[in-house]
Amino acid sequence: RFGLAQPSAGWPCASLAHFVGVFLAGVLARSPELCPRPAFGGLGSLQVARFVWEVELELDQKGATPVSSWTRAEALDRGKEKMESVIRWLAWFDYSDRETLADMLGVDANGQSAFFKRLEVSGFVQVEIAPGIRRRIYGLGEAGYEYALMLLPELELKRRRRLPSWVSLVHSFSVQAAIIRRLPEVESIRPEKTLKHLRTVRLPDAILTMKNGEKIALEVELNHKSSARVFNIFLSHLKNIRAEHYDRVLYVFPGEPLCRLYREKFDLAVWPIYRMREGSTRLVLETSRNFDASQVHASNLFAFTVEGLYSL
Q1: What's the average model confidence in pLDDT over 175-198?
Q2: Which domain of life is it from (predicted)?
Q3: Which pTM value belongs to this model?
Q4: Could you give the C-alpha distances from 235 to 140, 202, 207, 266, 272, in angstroms and in order?
Q5: pLDDT beyond 90 at 189
Q6: What is the pLDDT of residue 6?
């Protein structure tokens, strides 16, 4: 009656819970007046049901042919898994683009047009055009925001009203690229916005817990900071390591010249010490003391690498 896709012969039947979800999605799609806006969090749940229903309908329209020999149930589960991965990612980083999200999912962006279209139509994501470069930027839509609150209740999620500067976007996308490159070895990810509760003197771009149990602070540098800030950040990382927030630091650069500038400072036998001037964010040199970096040089607490990051 509601035009729901019927299971094809040879396909395993969906669970009762799945059928109810699909049924509700069909009702919502065709009779919105019968379903007033649900209480907080309900919108995300109903949109998930509708999303799954649309995946199922697409399978039927394609003759119910499984992808890569997947069963129908596996294809539906994979669609929901991909959707939730995108929502988590956007909740962590606020913004991304189709190519980055596809890399995170381990799929070819060119073959995911239908998937991303469903995300946009369902309200899980919204698309904005970055000014001046005509790049499509993905962020959480209303349904995605509410569903993210259920997926990541520990995250202090805030709605973003407008795109940040393009410089900030490029840095965020570069951090995402560096994390994605390491995903096969990563057990869990804690981006900077999830670290606010830590009493650290310096928040890295992310803390990656590797499958071997090691915790690595990730720092992606796209430009050269002042010498005072560089040395201050080096020492801040040492304090965080001593406090056991992570085990070591990985600096990632887009090019060798920038990496060399940081490495030259790190290799100095003695590091100057800077402190924050009272009532100001300006760093001033402490002339009465410095830091002997010989023990740091002999350790593996810092690593510096160059790799391809995000580019237009």
Answers
A1: 94
A2: Bacteria
A3: 0.78
A4: 36, 9, 17, 10, 10
A5: yes
A6: 40
CA distances from 37 to 14, 241, 272 (A): 27, 48, 60
Residues 10 and 49 in one domain: yes
Identify the domain boundary among 130, 148, 163.
Answer: 163
CA distance 16 to 210: 38
C-beta of residue 83 within 8 angstroms of C-beta of residue 52: no
Give 38-47 pLDDT, tens digit per residue. 434 455 555 6
Q: Are residues 192 and 149 in the same domain?
A: no
Range of the domain at 211: 165-312
pLDDT at 68 over 80: no
Lowest mean pLDDT: which of 142-146, 156-160, 220-224?
Answer: 156-160
The reported pLDDT for the residue numbered 243 is 92
- Cβ–Cβ < 8 Å for 180, 218: no
**Same domain assignment for residues 145 and 216:** no
Whole-angstrom CA distances from 79 to 13, 105, 110, 163 are 17, 11, 16, 28
Closest CA to 170 of 145, 133, 140: 133
Specify whether 268 is located in the same domain as 207: yes
The number of CA neighbours under 13 Å toward the Cβ of 167 is 3
Give the total number of structural domains in the chain.
2
Query: Which of 138, 163, 188 marks a domain boundary?
Result: 163
The overall average pLDDT reported for the chain is 82
The C-alpha atoms of residue 108 and residue 178 are separated, in whole angstroms, by: 18
Compute the average pLDDT of residues 181-210: 91
The one-character DSSP state at 145 is: H
Could you tell me if 180 and 305 lie in one domain? Answer: yes
